[in-house]
Amino acid sequence: MEIHRLEKIWIAVSLVFIVGLVASIVYGVAGMGVGTVGDTGQQLDPNALEETRFADPGGHWASDDHYVVTVVARQFLFQPGSQEPVMVPANTTVTLYVTSPDVVHGFDVVGTHLNAMVIPGQVTKLTTEFDEPKSYGIVCHEYCGAGHQSMAGQLVVVPADELPRNESGAAGNTSGANATSESATASADASPAVAPPEVSA
Amino acid sequence: MTYVDDFPGEARVVRTAFAVAFASIGLGGALGVLQALFRTGYSRSLFSAVDYYSVLTAHGVLMALVFTTFFIVGLFAWGVTRSLDTGFRDLRFTWGWLALMTLGTLLAFVSILGGIVGFIPTHAAVLYTFYAPLEASPTFYLGLALLVVGSWGAGVDYVLTLRDWRADNPDERIPLQTFMAVSTMLLWFVCTLGVAVEVVVFLLPWSLGLIPRVDPLLTRTLFWYFGHAVVYFWLLPAYFVWYTIFPKLSGGRLFSDPLARVVFVLFLVLSTPVGVHHQYGDPGLSQGLKFVQMTSTYFILLPSLLTAFTVVASMEHGARQRGGEGRFGWLRALPWENPSFSGIALAGLAFAASGFGGMVNAGLNVNALVHNTMWVPGHFHLTVGTAVALTFMAITYWLLPQLTGKRLRLRTLAAVQPYLWFVGMVFMSNAMHRIGLAGVPRRTSEPQYEQVIFNTPIASIGELHLQTVGGAFLLFASLLCFLAVVGSTWLGERGAKPLAVNGHIPSALSGPEHSPRVLDDFRVWVALTVLLLLIAYGPPLAAMVQNGLFAPGSAPIPA
Amino acid sequence: MSDRRYSRRRFLRDASAVAATLGASTGLSAAASDPYGGWFTGDARGAATENYDGTTVDKTGQDAVTVQVGAQGNGGSYAYAPPAVKISPGTEVTFEWVSNTHDIQVESAPSGASWEGVDTIENEGYTHSHTFETAGVYKYYCTPHLSLGMKGAIVVGGSGGGGGGSTSPEWGEWFTDSARGGAVGNYDGSTVDKTGQDAVTVQVGADGNGGSYAYAPPAVKISPGTEVTFEWVSNTHDIQVESKPTGSSWSGVSSIENEGYTHSHTFETSGTYTYYCTPHLSMGMKGGIFVTGTSAAGGGGGGGGVLPDLNWWNVAWIAGPSVVAIPSILAYLLWDYHRAGAFDGLLGRGEAGPPPETPEAPPATPERELGHDEYDPWGTATLLAVYFVIISVAWALMYFVEFLGNGPHIFG
Amino acid sequence: MTEHAPTPSDDAGDGDAATENDVWSRRSFVRYLAPVSIAIPIVVETETLVGLLQNDFGENSAWTQPTGVSVGIGGDLRPDLNTREKLQNAALEAVEDGRRLTLAVAVRNTTDAPYRLALGAVTTDGGETVEGGYTTDPVAPGETTSFTAEYVLPADATPASVETTVTIGNQPSERTVQLAPVPTQ
Fold first, then answer.
1. Is residue C372 annotated as involved in ligand binding?
2. C18 CB neighbour count, 10 Å cutoff
3. Class of D67-178 per CATH?
4. Does residue B381 carry a catalytic annotation?
5. Residue at B430 is within a domain
């Protein structure tokens, strides 16, 4: 089978291009630590969220330099997010845990690259850091039923000292009971890259 | 001799398949324009924001599943019988699977219609990806299952006809068109296993209430096992046209037959173990798995880049045989006034542009820039909406006269139609890409929120909406032209004037005899495909099934 | 034998089929004047409530009333049943949840009422009851399903007092003496209907309430987008806004003005506006403007700010050509059908015959034959080289600048 | 465009003269349509590329603008104008007859005309309107100023929005701005 020499050159150029593409992705993931949603290994029963960390969605300080927010995406609103914005501190590592009790939703913080799916029975974990106070819109970008077009909310980044740190005080925007009932809160998360050894209830 | 005189029975089968295809693109196109008007806010009185999702499901199913599948089985039926120069073994079996496919389509369409009109008791506003736990009526799933099983019948028909032909010609190489048709159908058998298991084992009993729960992540992964390979099931028939007919239309011969076979084998082997690149944003799938499938996704670029070289080289060969000179001067010598030629050339150009969009989508982390935003519809309206659909329309102008024995009518309208489609798609798709970069979500009837602002970098949201609607109008006008030409040709008078087209296809510049014989041995390639699938999909599916086939499960939520 | 004559009947049938596909099933927008000030229509917050058919279930006299939360309606289990109910003061209303993820947010309640609804999302089986004492109109909605029209209203019958002007759903007790400033003399219980007119005038300081201390007409109903002009016809009056729908920008006239002064404002947000004159409030110088129904200037679209800022240049070069293309295609089609004998049946022409063999066109012979060895696709190589450069540059820009260079990322 | 010798292209081979002249001469008509149709995407894509580059490398790029409607501490009260009205701080503290809301705002006049910012009434979650606010005296072009506006809200009310009026030259522009939740001291 003889291939025209111009064709051989083109095959070589194509292979170099493909390897170059894969290399730039590897640089992004390994070099700059910019990845995507992974497998947190936690599965939960979507119909029994009250026994999990999502019983009382909201934000709290997991340690002095790590803020954790749990969000429930349910048919046609984010809790917190729609009725009152998700509050996160600036210049601090923030981890968002999102799940859904009913159907597949999308969780896209418009204007950032936080873009992931929310699937009943799974826990979506997004770790990031916001560098300046600003308010972002949150949009569900996966069709989830009749009210999908109105499912949106807000995420507001505030200076870190705005969010009270004491465990007993009403943390940020924990709606309802203020004592964080998080029994399964992990130990202090050393670095964002290491997934905290969460034990789901 | 014209095809319709050689194989009248087979010609009628192909005509019927094309008729269903053109009916569904006609209806699907009309729904598409209504959606564009609704989404951009120009007219919100046609249907409610909730009905929009049933219209979107109808548009998706009619265009992406019905129009493509029917045209493909028709095109391959013509390709196989023409290149093997023999009819099907038993036309009753052929009419059988075509009837099954049509029944499935009607069942699915009526189920979707039920969501809009009151008197039909079904609902299926679940879009054409029908993710659980949103649940449609059982008739919707049954309809899709029948459509797929019917198309399996078509594959079996081609393979049996090839086996008969090889029994009579043991040492001859498989003719190129049959090689391409059979390898595409083998890919179709392998990839539809995923959606068949999802629908028959999980969703159908689940929507009938026989099983209480299904695991949304498992059904979703099974769908995307099928979801990416189906885009190659749509693309390879377009490559079939580009490789075997387009060189002749440009006045030349195919540059290399062996390379075409290598490309189709690469697609057969690599198409299915890449589906997870649609699930980068999904929880529950490890980043390692996503990275492996991303690498094999990028390697699928290779056969497409090879196709670019071979097809453009064949076009240049034709131009030079028509007297074209110089480094680029030959481009002017090409028959731009022939709609079969111009449609395919413009489709190729659109596909080259959409290739870049595909690279951005396929990146593990850069996908977060565009996932589920309007960028994605912008991308696939260029790939399946133009590269495949415009190729199918263009080749109809060349094929329909041979199938009906009637001369093509309204040839000026036909000559304009591809350009109208191409320009309309450039406007609509460019607007979709730009509005997607600003973060506007797809699959949303009214993307205007009280709490969210979208900052588009160049034009305002209003201008992008206007550009989208302008493009949609041009596309619909072009669709009307196409249906007008096809309709009036079909109703024209047979045999009055000699055809303006010629069915002969010249041999390739470097023929199949130069290529190794193993290329024609499909058993080897299917075995390799199955091996790659076990590596790519074995571990994740096993992990999901570990904690129970249906856990963590969700009950159906009717949509 | 294919039927050559393209009969007129078939042509009409095809045309009507296309028209039917494009036919619009325009939704009925209940523009009839309704007592809840448009609360159940799409003009107020959220979508129109489909399961509200205009009637208010009268349960006055019963001391226990139940309202279902999450009943079937509005495209799923997203409705309060009954949506509108009239009860007498002192009735205990029990809300029963019959499906999941609903709450009750109070949109508006008469001043002095103590009902706060249910602030948390509850599921099937949850109940909430409240005894309604204060008379007036209570409007409430469900946060997650507001956009589907899940809204409700409770009207508590007028209490004994409040002479001179009865409680009406639009104004509540504003014109009665149980509201600030006492009963309004020149309010006879009727609301002057001025919907559909572009300009409406209200006199400030007309005679009434024992002198020139009245707004005339005191209660007027207009469509959204109407401009109301207030004309001072006597001295020392102002306009203080008592209540207005959220999002409205009207701020009245805060300074005392004299005869001849005029103030005009275009009312966009639908709902109830109530205002009074500070010096003459105690005499009952009060007024109300009620904005509802489809706006005079054409049907209101969906969310505001939807229609783009159309400048003619934009419309011309995009929508223009396609609108020209479609009719010209249809005209060409008709002309060619006629030439093809489509209407011969009408004109009595046309003949029949067996389909002869159809010869193909002769294969086109190329100008010159190019074999495999004489042909090197340099043109193709150059085109692909250009393409390669373009996608490489585009990839570098998109990946390293647009993506990595911007905004918070997901740490993987 | 040299008029190409009419070589027998695949489709033009029909000798039937009757149909040839009744349609416009397809070859010349389409020869102009082909270059135009290919030029259009090149123009549109170049404009997109230039726009994206301006957006990335120019100042106040679209990617840095807020996409949430409500304004929090550090946010700009009027992102729709290109002057700067930064909400430096917002605090609620309990006082004897309710809760005092203080809004600290820093203003920079980037226009070339005198500029005034007036904070009007605050609307609480319950819908009541609380009067008060602050009106700056005219700020010369390029100058900055800052002020603190105070409101006394009922005991359990939280602020939902504040009315702002920016007057540039003599052009007032009114807008009600949604406030992100204000932390309580």
1. no
2. 14
3. mainly beta
4. yes
5. yes
